[in-house]
Amino acid sequence: MDDFITASVGLDVHVDSIAIGAATAGRAPPCFLGTVPPKLPPLLKALGQLGPPRALRIVYEAGPCGYGLVRELRSRGYQCEVVAASKIPRQTGERIKTDRRDALKLASLCRAGELDMVRARLKARQQLKAMLLRHGKRYTGKSSWTAAHERYLAEVGFAHPAQDIAYVEYRLAIREAHERVERLVEALRTQVQTWRMRAVVEALMSLRGIDFVAAVTLVAELGDLRRFAHPRDLMGYLGLVPSEHSSGNTRRLGEITKTGNGHARRILIEAAWNYRFPARIGLVLERRQQSQSKSVRDIAWRAQRRLCQRYRRLNARHLHRNKICVAIARELAGFIWDIARQVLPNP
Prior knowledge:
Elements lengths: L6 E7 L4 E7 L6 E6 L3 H9 L7 E6 L6 H8 L3 E5 L15 H14 L4 H18 L12 H9 L5 H32 L5 H7 L7 H11 L8 H7 L4 E6 L2 E7 L5 H11 L10 H7 L4 H23 L4 H20 L7
Helix pairs in contact: 4-6, 7-8, 8-10, 9-13, 10-13, 12-13
């Protein structure tokens, strides 16, 4: 299990200097610590001011300086990753690039999870499925990446030895990515134990489709939901309300605005997909609700009944499933707002 992570650190590494930015746990903006010579002793001295090696998560952009730095840091107990420049998100129209900005951006993205392991696991899984599809091998079971699916994958073979080697490499990459995801989730569980928003996270997990990672992400991205006076305010903040173009007596509604927090919006739309099934409380959901108050459980059950029924009605009108999920996600945001107001964060 990883130790408690107190700061995410971004390094902008050059031949003649290393710029250092840090983002501490929480919602505070990242800060720029300064620039040090491209030598290990001054870098270690600067990192030592942030905490012990196991309490820091470090990233730097791949470049001409190679991988010597990551090996040196790992040998001293630091968690360090090298990220590809092409994988770092950049805003449209961004034209200013400095060492300070690069270091702060890397630190912020590391803390926010944009450079996360889940995407690496998804990509590895897609590559394996593409290989199976190219060779006409189809899995006929209900769900992928279950125990039954893993047994099927273990029995797959190819005509050429080179193909078998590539297939095994894909499976190993998936396993390694999955283990990294599990380590990250376990680290999150450790941090949440002492987080002031822990009660809110656990309450949101009473809702269908909102597991631990989804609940932590929503609370981390949205903060204290009591700041929204009405659920419509939260829906608008998430960009889940229709755009509007009105003139005179004509009122036209278009696609959702997609303003505000895109990460939280994506989590909600993914959660909405779970409401295509009839309303029920399974074993896993029942365990998550055991420690919750009756008011929270009642809201979660009311949400299930309403959203499952609404999904069926919209589906009967032959609407596109993506539009249905967006409509469900919009209403789900209202129930999240309601539950968050029932639980107070720790002082």
